[in-house]
Amino acid sequence: MSLSVPAAADPFADKPSVLEVEGLVKHFPITQGIVFQRKVGAVKAVDGVSFNLREGETLGIVGESGCGKSTLAKLLMRLEEPDAGTVKFRGEDFLSVKGDELRRLRRKIQIIFQDPYTSLNPRMSVGDIIAEPFKLHPEEKPKQGIRNRVKELLDLVGLNPEHINRYPHQFSGGQRQRIGIARGLALNPDVIICDEPVSALDVSVQAQVMNLLDDLQKEFGLSYIFIAHDLSVVRHISDRVGVMYLGKLAELGTQEEIYTGPSHPYTQALLSAVPLPDPTLRGAREQIVLQGDPPNPANPPSGCRFRTRCWKATEICATQEPELISRGQITQLSACHHAQQNEKIIPAHS
Amino acid sequence: MTQSQTPAGFTPGTRPGEVPLLEVKDLQVEFRTKAGVAKAINGLNFSLHAGETLAILGESGSGKSVTAQTIMGILDMPPGKIAGGEIRYRGEDLLSMDEESRRKLRGVKIAMIFQDALSSLNPVLPVGWQIAEMFRVHRGLKRKEAKVKAVEMMQRVGIPGAEERAGDFPHQFSGGMRQRIMIAMAIALDPDVLIADEPTTALDVTVQAQVMRLLKDLQTEFNMGLILITHDLGVVADVADKIAVMYSGRVMEAADVYEIYGRPGHPYTQGLLNSIPRIDDEGGRLRAISGLPPSLTDMPPGCPFNPRCEFATDRCRTERPELRPVAEGHLSACHYAEDVYAGTATRTRRPSPTGAGMIDVSEEAPQ
Amino acid sequence: MSEIHRPEARVEPIDSTIEPAGEPAKNKKVEEASLLADAWRSLRRNPWFIISAVLLVLFLSMAIFPQLFTNNDPRECLLGRSRQSPSAEHWFGTDVQGCDYYSRVIYGARNSIAVGFIVAIGTFIIAVLLGLVAGYFGSWVDAVISRFTDMVFAVPYILGALVFLNVLESRGVREVAFVLIIFMWPTMTRLMRGSVISVVNSEFVLAARALGAGPITIMRRHILPNSLGPVIGYATVFTGIIIGAEATLTFLGVGLQLPAISWGLQLSDAQPFLQTVPHLLLFPVIFVGLTVFAFMTMGDAIRDALDPKSKK
Predict the structure, then answer these.
(1) A146 at B interface, C-beta within 8 A
(2) In CATH, which superfamily holds the domain spanning B22-240?
(3) What sign for the dihedral angle of Cα A261, A263, A267, A273?
(4) Which residues of A touch B261 (CB under 8 A)?
(5) Rg of chain B's alpha carbons, rounded to an integer?
(6) In this predicted complex, what is the ipTM?
(7) How far is B21 from chain C (nearest CA, A)?
(8) pLDDT digits over C164-217, tens only?
């Protein structure tokens, strides 16, 4: 198969990087014993992930459960401390800063969580929830007063500012997610990490929240890291996409490259499994059915981690770990020794 | 609220001259909550034949799971209450049947699989034992025979090394494998009707594809009627023969799968299809349906979808639309179904920029 | 299934923003309800709460202002009228010493309820502090606190109290309360720890950490308000348990001592006369029973009202 995907001009090519992630590693020890714990192994949740995020860009991270994408989000927020690697925010090392410096950088990176039912403190009013960032960062106190700013934020995310004194349980899932977004926006961040922000929402509400995220990005020049398991949602919102498998990036490229010419067998299998909302395409697509389940992340296979389920695997895959690099004429980065683009995974939509 | 949503004798998917496997007529289910009576199902009609797949499509609160529980007879009562209607299995009304005869059908002739396989299986018993129990209790097989049958079933649903794994406990299996075990238990006694309530929602996409394929194969093999309850428009398009779209406890539209996706006859269905991001489309802004589903305790007068509908008129706000045919075998509960079906309906409003409300078209400046 | 489990969440969203512009906004008065206000509203509707509240008000006023209930002096005893049956003059009769039994039972409320409150407050403070620290910090801090809690938990309080109180020459409310606190804090501490652990991994705690909130802020603003509910409920039940425990210890002869007046002492004194003058036992038993019942019922009602999950 030849390269038929034209390398589309990258609209963010000349934008500065806001976040540079290099070789991020997080292993969770598996311990036994209660008082005297001894380590018996480690779950390699994130195992050497590198990428950069540019101003105004959305980087989608997709993968199945257990691939480490949620751990990655926590590492980027410093909610977990990584074992190795660096995260630079506009050139500053985010992982080594402490005290006031850390607080200053924290303002610039915010997170939106998956579950709108647990991500808001049920004992606090909506006004207090959105005002909390200002209480923790008094230097960012808005000129117009906290209460007025909170009302502005509510209005911005499409909620009624009059509802400032209500409590989270008085809102529906979609509205709660809007509250979470307002809290994330309060300190005017540069980067927002969205950890499955729409997967708990109903179909019709999901689209509203995605549009809202889109609008806010345009208005404030935000950069998003959008973590999700829904490949359609990620394609829709992302400029670039990284596919994760067992703690590593299998493929990284523009949305166009990944979805119209996936080169890694795992990406191909993943995309081929997504059902299309069109009954006339039934049976028209070839589905790649993967054998077995993902291996235990505490004991991943040698060499390429996907080789145990891969139909292309050869000897080299067992001995040599493939690097995430540009291979041959393939423009995206692919961690496969046998990378080859396949344009027929997703039929072009008429 | 006792009047039927459809004209008598007209139910979606009727095949002339054949008694359907399962027939639901004007079913009404209510829940008593602190906020008042919630009408979870408000006049539901459908029929299901052998070998057929009916998808009940809806968002949370639409009543789709309550439908499944009511048919199975596992609805919590109270707070639930069946306020009217019939559920006929091979012509016999399940709702007027005594509990004993009903129990003989449950799990035997009408089986169900749930979304969460881990909590549906008993964590302290080996899976093989749990499958074998079906044969012992309902078929009176001896321990050994039942065990052999259980292993057979596990092989049939594609569990590798079934013989060795029959002694394992549910938590020792992956999510996909657990769902397969649930399926094995559900089809063990060769049921006529299988109800699958969000069977793949908790699974990863690659596993989801495998499980759906398995379900489809088993359906063909055993000639079962399959009721697939889901919110996933992609899964439905792949496997369903006919679809009932539910909203606020009512069927908004019911038709053949090609009709629903090709020419939706209800603004809600249309809105749903437009609002989902598609993997084969990088698309720009999504055309979201604005607003939220109404509260079941406080339904708007007229059409339940009218506050979110782009075509709503005063008639929609006062008069409740009946489910009626717009084309051969295609039912829609919309006053303007014909126009929507033909694509000529007049837009009266559009969603506000934040997606939280509607703006009247007449209030906009002309472009 | 999820739609069954969260009927309320789905059924009650308040959506004035989604009301179409064409329609006039509904003038539905939406109460700006905090969870506390919610709890209060559900309490007011709970008949058990009303019953226990009335009883508690009665017993508390007995403890604080016994003069309101009787004009007799409980310490005015005339041996000449020993062991009289209830009469118009002496409602509950008289005891062995010839004291007016009604006034003694009324005055007995103070010591019993005082022990109950002191112990409940003491254990509450210990439980909240230890439970919060153990649950929030986890790892070895939790391991040390939990093992220590388990060790104390393993000693039956009656055994501990018997050993300790036997050594003390004079035992008043303070001593009895102190010993009860020492042996009875573990249950509540375990409850608090569990309650904290169920909150500590919530996403709203993560969200606060992501905003740069420190441990103290997080514990105060996010964890405490969300984990206190069951502990407050239990502390109320616990007050009732303690009143029973005080009576038990006093009855066993290691609790309060004469000339103090308490229900436990009355029970202890009445025991030899069970067959001849049963009312001496009956009246304090009724009072102890009703007080314990009132606290326990109140505790259950409070716990249910404060638990958002228990709402149906």
Answers:
(1) no
(2) P-loop containing nucleotide triphosphate hydrolases (3.40.50.300)
(3) positive
(4) 277-280
(5) 22
(6) 0.81
(7) 25
(8) 888 877 888 888 888 889 888 999 999 999 999 988 888 899 888 888 888 898
